[in-house]
Amino acid sequence: MLGGGTIVMRDVNAGALGIEGLVSLCRLGLDRIVIDGNLARLGAFTTLAAVERHPALAALRTAMESIGSPTLRSTATVGGNVCASYPGDLATCLWALDATVTVASREGAKEKSVADVITTGLAAAEIVTEVWFRIPEANAWFYRKAMRRALNSGSIVTIAAHVPVVDGAITSPRVAIGGVAARPVRALSAEKVLEGQPLTRAVVEKAAAAALQDVSPVSDACASAWYRSRVLPVHFRRALLREGA
Amino acid sequence: MPSSVVTLNVNGEEREFLVRPGMNLLTALRERLGLTAAKQGCAQGTCGTCTVVLDGRAVFSCLVPVETIDGARVETLEGLANNGRLDPIQEAFLDNFATQCGFCASGMIMAAKALLAENPQPTREDVIRAISGNVCRCTGYGAIIDAILDAARIRSSRLVAAAR
Q1: Contact at 8 Å (CB) between A159 and A234?
Q2: Is B97 left (phi over 0), alpha (psi -120 to 50) or beta?
Q3: A-chain residue closest to B44, CA distance
Q4: Is B87 an interface residue toward A (CB < 8 Å)?
Q5: Per-position b or e across A130-141, b if 16+ CB within 10 A of its CB
Q6: For a designed S-S bond to A140, which of A20, A105, A158, A164 qualifies (C-beta 3.0 to 4.6 A apart)?
Q7: Is the ipTM of this complex over 0.90?
Q8: Contacting residues of B for A75, CB less than 8 Å apart
Q9: CATH at residue B150
Q10: Does the beta-carbon distance from A71 to B68 stay under 8 Å?
Q11: Global pTM?
Q12: Do B24 and A151 touch (CB under 8 A)?
């Protein structure tokens, strides 16, 4: 299944075995962004560039700009980022935002959590048609992608966190960590530390240390597993305290 | 699987050609249409040497399945010069020594073309972001960034002159 083709076409170009046919989803009209109050509905064929540009989705702009380059984002799609065998940084964000996806198959359409699709993928002949989520308040949204270069680089570790503070206490935090392994994970140990606490340096540092329990880092061209473990708590802290660039 | 016919508007001209299933736009441009300015550097979307402008946006032509863009408008480096008169971006690349081996040049220039069409007065930051998908091993990027900023100045001064 082809969204923008920025993942599948790499395999096609390399002459990868096992590709018997290509089905493009480009003519299904799935490229619309609909904003209803603070609810954002993204068609699965929406390009990452369109998400980046949309004024109502400004909270996600830093995250979008960290994915590849503008040239890549002009064809890469939301659906592709979520459904790829290596779900990307947008998928990590959508997990932190508790997004829902609409999945279509011969049996009709049903809704699944984006977490479901990210962790177990889709069945054959299932396609994601839409992703929707509540747009976060800017002050409750935290994102940091640690990379080897300033732009257009794979992730060493990606932190995406929705951490609302109500009456001085963190309420229902959701933290997703990507980049450290093939698939993003939900940082449940870190969330447990954060829940009900004030958003202070001490609490964040404790949560950052706890986050290590939630991940099984891998070694790849970007970084070694050892390095990822070493810097994950640092980037977690920098993300939630909004430290540094 | 049989080939199919695709029609594209390439540099202002309607071009019709046969494509094998799964053929990418870069291969179509180079092998079907003889337009070899766009280069194959990686075929993975990581080097940018295949960058062309598709319906006004810079894209990696190596990753675009050409069957999905039937009827689209494609601009390549070959279409930039006008009756022998170089585009300001091309002039600026020459004046700023922004090319050495030349392999990245087509991609860089087309990325610049897309940028200046959308943002005629880019900042240095804007330029860097726009070419962040294009790798250069020779120049160290400085001259390329200067050239693109220079091209923006040339274009706007020519627009001002024409308006007078």
Answers
A1: no
A2: left
A3: A10
A4: no
A5: bbbbebbeeebb
A6: A164
A7: yes
A8: 57, 59-60, 63-64
A9: 1.10.150.120
A10: no
A11: 0.95
A12: no
Asked if the Cβ–Cβ distance from B60 to A68 is below 8 Å, we say no
Q: Which CATH number is B64's domain given?
A: 3.10.20.30
Say how far apart CA B80 and CA B84 lie, in whole Å. Answer: 10
* pLDDT tens digits in sequence order for chain A, 245 residues long: 889 999 999 999 998 878 888 989 999 999 999 999 999 999 999 999 999 999 999 999 999 999 999 999 999 999 999 999 889 999 999 999 999 999 999 999 999 999 999 999 999 889 999 999 999 999 999 999 999 999 999 999 999 999 999 999 999 999 999 999 999 999 999 999 999 999 999 999 999 999 999 999 999 999 999 999 999 999 999 999 999 85
Domains and CATH numbers, chain A: 8-134 (3.30.465.10), 138-240 (3.30.390.50)
Which residue is it, tokens 């998928």? A91
Buried b (16+ CB within 10 A) or exposed e, B118-137: eeeebeeebbbbbbbbbbbe
- For residues B15 and B45, membership in a common domain is answered with yes
- State which amino acid sits at residue A128: V
Q: Which DSSP letter does residue A180 get?
A: S
